[in-house]
Amino acid sequence: MGEDNYRRAVTLNSASIGKGTAIAALEYQTYDGPWTDIDEDVKKKNANLRYIVPIFDGELAISGMAYENSWNSADQVPARAIESGLIDRLGSIDTQVGGESSRYSLSAQYNSDTVNASLYAIDTDLTLFSNFTYFLDNPETGDQFEQADDRKIYGGELSTTLPFAVTQGSSITLGGQWRYDDIGNVGLYRTQNLVRLSTIREDAIDSSSYAAFAQSNIVLSDSLTLSLGGRYDYFDIEVDSQIAANSGDEKDGMFSLKAGLKYQFTDTMTMFANIGQGYHSNDARGVTITQDPTTGESIAPAPLLVRSLGYETGINWTDNKT
Fold it and tell me: 94: closest CA among 125, 148, 138?
């Protein structure tokens, strides 16, 4: 318990069920904040339930998680509003912004010495009201707006680690990943007093991604280890927009390589050098857009995937005494 109606309760426990262990945790939190003219009215709820059981020379963990939150937001304010005395430093100009969010998930993960596998399903929802400019763009109704995102996510990964015959102690990991985003609605709306006045943009999106990867760990000597890896990523997106010109679909794939070298000086000090290719995936709406939803002007779409390159070197030191 604390100031400004801060309340937090947490409980957790575990129990043996059959050959496995069940773990449960619950959290509830409220908070109003120090603000002059709003109560944040945070109401956050978390729940976590997990069952872990040994099976097939490995361990299976099944997890269910739930999160819900709602709040009123103390948005940013211009310094001149405080300096002029219009509001104090804990005041607000738009007292009706905030949001609510929820996320529910179910997942399963299996790990053994040679095989790792996981599956997950997520249902998430977000409604967020903001006001960055107040009456700058629209002096009649104000500049409050709403962002909405309602999606379901499914995915999984499967990998296996095997001995690599190039040298004693070397290994190679082979695997694949999959993810599908079913976005029923992602929208942007003009609002006033939390009521929608008009739609700026509203889209439904299907996004699928697939990846295959290989990662080797090659022992060159007692002190020197070489890591080599590669993966191929493939994306397939489809956008259904309320503006027909911004609807469309796009596909793209990219192959990436990486390498790392690690030298162990002592039991507590290791030097490393890594280099790797990567990519950035752009927002699906930006990949198919051809018309600005506000002005109607033509827009050049962005590429679905963009190449990146990263590298690093350094020394890791561990104090075993602690």
Answer: 138
